[in-house]
Design goal:
The chain has 309 residues and is α/β, with parallel strands linked by helices. 30% of the residues lie in helices and 32% in strands. It has 2 domains: 5-229, Rossmann fold; 233-307, Alpha-Beta Plaits, CATH 3.30.70. The strands form 3 sheets. A 6-stranded mixed sheet has the order 6-7-8-3-9-10, with helices on both faces. A 4-stranded antiparallel sheet has the order 2-1-4-5, covered by helices on one side. Strand 1 (5-19) and strand 2 form a beta hairpin. It is elongated and about 80 Å long. The mean pLDDT is 90. The structure holds adenosine-5'-diphosphate and magnesium ion. Magnesium ion binds at residues 50-51, 91, 165-166.
Length: 309
């Protein structure tokens, strides 16, 4: 059965105007769709436009042009229905330190106009494993717990889509696992998940599909498996007797990870560069190659080659 799309984004652009002299194009003609029930990951380096995208969905940033449709609702015509359809976990933690998790969730539910008898505070506290902290002051919670409380806050109105912006930034490894478990169990209950992260290993494990954003443009959009198959990257390390003079811009897709008198390490797309060309470039400089080691790349390398400027 074909799953329906729950998010349509068409020609979405955003330009920030700092002052009359300076403008920043944060999103440049973005097109993408997200399917019901999937975990979609939006990846990209700092400044790529990920938060701008999410803030447009949440209604805190105005788009410059383009169309956004969430759960069948147009963001311009039905902004309230759009907001009701999504739960947003923003990048910055903003929870009042003097409220308890329970109080916070009750207040949030009140803001959405949910009647007392329809509230699901206990269920949510359980889902994010904060039952035993439900009566503690928020300021006494660890960073990971606060982050989970942010997730909880996004769930009070039972949104069918949950969007998380860098949910594991600043959360230690153990608690990150815990948070991802929460996200997975939400997804198992049928909630569509859209997330941004720069932990590529986690994206590789979590996401059904991935979009890679660079300078406000999508440079890849595919299933995680296809992305890894299609963009076959190679990591090569040349051990040399003196430093190679090489600029990444002489080869399409070449990313230089390190270069000094002992060696040159590069990552590139197999289909775009032949290793012989690299060897020739080095030898033409009268440099001896003492050793070459190669390795197939992972998502991190795909990401690096695609977002190289
Ligand atoms: P990401 O979340 O991928 O790191 P952002 O969406 O935060 O990227 O930022 C994209 C670009 O837009 C950056 O160049 C950033 O400096 C700029 N930007 C973001 N928010 C604002 C703003 N409120 N005013 C001006 N420029 C902004
Ligand atoms: Mg961001």
């Amino acid at each position: 059965m074909n799953k329906k799309n729950v998010l349509h984004v068409k020609n979405l652009s955003k330009t920030y105007f700092k002052d009359s002299a300076k403008s920043i194009v944060a999103l440049n003609n973005l097109n993408l769709e997200v399917k019901e029930g999937e975990i979609f990951g939006l990846l990209g380096p700092n400044g790529a436009g990920k938060s701008t995208f999410i803030n447009i969905l949440s209604g805190t940033t105005m788009k410059s042009s383009g169309d956004v449709n969430v759960w069948g609702f147009d963001i311009d015509k039905n902004p309230r229905q759009v907001r009701a359809s999504i739960g947003i976990v923003p990048q910055e933690i903003n929870v009042d330190p003097f409220f308890t998790p329970r109080k916070l969730l009750e207040l949030q539910a009140g803001m959405y106009g949910i009647r007392k008898k329809d509230r699901i505070t206990d269920t949510i506290l359980k889902l994010v494993s904060l039952e035993s902290q439900s009566k503690s002051y928020t300021r006494s919670l660890s960073g990971g717990m606060k982050r989970r409380l942010m997730v909880a806050k996004a769930l009070v109105h039972k949104p069918p889509i949950v969007i998380l912006d860098e949910p594991t930034a600043g959360v230690d490894v153990e608690l990150r696992g815990n948070l991802w478990d929460n996200v997975r169990s939400l997804n198992k209950q049928g909630v569509t998940i859209i997330l941004t992260t720069h932990y590529l290993e986690e994206a590789e494990k979590m996401c059904d599909r991935i979009g890679i954003l660079n300078n406000g443009k999508l440079v890849a959009l595919d299933s995680t498996d296809n992305l890894l198959k299609k963009i076959q990257t190679k990591k090569v390390k040349f051990t040399v007797n003196k430093q190679v003079n090489i600029k990444s811009n002489i080869f399409n897709s070449l990313k230089i990870s390190s270069n000094d008198k002992n060696g040159l390490s590069v990552i590139y797309e197999k289909s775009k560069i032949n290793i012989n060309d690299l060897i020739q470039t080095i030898e033409k400089q009268g440099i001896n190659i003492l050793d070459i080691s190669t390795d197939d790349g992972d998502l991190e390398d795909v990401f690096l080659t695609l977002t190289k400027n």
